[in-house]
Amino acid sequence: SQMDDADIIFDLIANLFNKDILMLQTADFTIYKIDRSVYFANTARLKTGTKKELDRAILPPVYLQEGEEYIAKLLLIEKVLLLRRHEVFGEIPGELLTQLADTLEEVRVDGGTELITVGDKGTSPIYMIRFGEVAINRDGEQPELLREGALFGEQLLLDSERFDFSATTTEDSCLILLRKEELTDLMAKHVEVVEAYLKLVGPQRKEEEEEELEMGIL
User: Fold this and answer.
1) Phi, psi (5° rounding) for residue 217?
2) Three-state SS letters, 189-203
3) What is the mean pLDDT of residues 92-101?
């Protein structure tokens, strides 16, 4: 879709009938970018429900009133690429990464929204910032400000664990949510996801343990 003077080949059109949503969306998006008339001619051959879902994901919005703000939601392929930006998720095989990306939810929140409160259970979602800013607050420490691409909430996983910090948006933000139950379901089935999660939280857990040991010695 980003190549100059690209042609629509039959392979692209054939993938409009692919049952794999990743292939279907990506082919559809590419065709729309290259030649909208070909997009409309060929998607008219799809089942009504499938066409509606694709149109909702790919076509520009129709504004109900002038000045209405709209942010297009990410396609599945864009969610996969977003996860791959993080080194740990990049080690998960492509098919599993696609399954994980398909569970992601996208939400927009106003500035001043508290996402995590001190004492919340460890089963609270993992958040990734698509755009905006989030302040991480711990007692006695300066707030840590996180921006685009940053991840938080991944430190805990169990219902018995509790967060020792709060997370609050400092401006209107768009966040990607990975719910812990979706993550643990994949972890139960695939050891590669377990290994990736352990690498994600491992360095922080090790640092916390070293700090606790040092305090004990003092």
Assistant:
1) -70, -40
2) HCHHHHHHHHHHHHH
3) 86
